[in-house]
Amino acid sequence: MALVDYSSSSSASTESLHQQPPAKRRKAGDSETSTLGRPSSLTVKADGQDGKPTSRSVMPPLPSTFHDLYASTVRQSVVDDPSLHHGRKRQTPHIVGNWPSHLYIEWNLTSPEYDMLVKLVQDIETELQGKVKLHNFLTSDLGSPLPLHISLSRPLSLTTANKDAFLEKASGAIQAGAVAPFAVTPRTLAWYKSPDSDRIFLIIRVASSRDLPGGKDAGGALNPELVALLRRCNGVASQFGQPPLYKHHEDDGSSGDEAVGVAFHVSIGWTFDVPGEEMSLRAIKVLKRSKYAEVRKWEIDVSAVKAKIGNSVHHIPLGRAGKGRIAGRPEAPDYF
Question: Where is the composition biased (Low complexity) (predicted)?
């Protein structure tokens, strides 16, 4: 007995469906059609070295905001529990109703870049001889690659009442600035003791492409574009009672821009242990090995600033070059 008693019209249409010819099976070696006769992927024909056409897959690039959709981690506890985070404690204690926030530049690694940095960290761990427990920022607990970043603010804590106003002012300050898209390059390894944390970070210092030999402004203040962005981000943070980033660099007796310019970096690892001086020097010299020469030639494109407020990430594009808009060299009065 049938489970469903179809009407005569339904039965007729069902029979016509059953009478359709079966799908053709894919022939051996046919990489362009699937078992249902549909293209299996977008392909482009090109002439190979032997003059015969070859096929290669072409995928459209992801939009720059795609990664923002997956920037949040799973909340494991509603209270600060260092045991869930390798002993780490919040730099800014969580207050119910407040929104932990951060302004930064994101660097999404390509597969070759990720593989190279993983090898770099492994070589550094070899130099540490197991005497220092080094945690890396390259890979998640699930084994997937993570984006890195260059900070443009300290950890911030915004109230529900002012978080939207903060985002509006930060967006306005960044987009009204004279900083056009630019690029920075990894330069040297260093150990960095954060004034906000009891951790020691393994960092890669970055330099603007304009600062490198042959660059347009070689010999000037280091990282002028990043310094210009930092001024604007710090100005907005101060308006909301938040501490500025790298203020201690300006207070050490050096020229403000010169002192701050050397501070920008990408963190690739951290530890609670203090490496001995000799071991520390050996570790940071690893990047100078010839096998990592390519790393020092990479260019990290900077076309936007990210504003993370709670679990939401907002994309703030930089301005475009034009009259009165020279990367890192504001010609108009500061926004704030």
Answer: 7-16
Extract the tokens encoding 99: 């929104």
The strand ranges marked E within 62-214 are: 98-107, 135-136, 148-151, 156-159, 182-193, 200-208
In the set 149, 248, 249, 314, the catalytic residue is: 149
Could you tell me the pTM of the whole model? 0.71
Task: Name the token pair of 327.
Answer: 């990367």
Examine the residue annotation and report whether 67 is marked as an active-site residue of this protein: no
Find the catalytic residue in 249, 265, 314, 315: 265
Residues sharing a CB contact under 8 Å with residue 191, sequence separation 6 or more, in sequence order: 200, 201, 202, 203, 275, 280, 283, 284
Q: C-alpha distances in angstroms, 103 versus 65, 150, 305, 320?
A: 15, 9, 7, 20
Instruction: Report the alpha-carbon distance of residue 120 to residue 33 in Å, rounded.
Output: 42
The per-residue pLDDT for range 130-169, each reduced to its tens digit, is 999 999 999 998 999 999 999 999 999 999 999 999 999 9
Residue 87 half-sphere exposure, CB side, CA atoms within 13 Å?
Answer: 10
Better-scored residue on pLDDT, 97 or 192: 192
| Residue 149: active-site member | yes
Tell me the mean pLDDT in the region 72-96.
Answer: 56
Q: What region, left, alpha or beta, does residue 173 occupy, with left being phi > 0 and alpha being psi -120 to 50 degrees?
A: alpha
- Specify the pairing of strand 200-208 against strand 265-271: antiparallel
- Domain ranges for the chain, please list them: 95-330
Q: What CATH fold (topology level) applies to the domain 95-330?
A: Cyclic Phosphodiesterase; Chain: A, (3.90.1140)
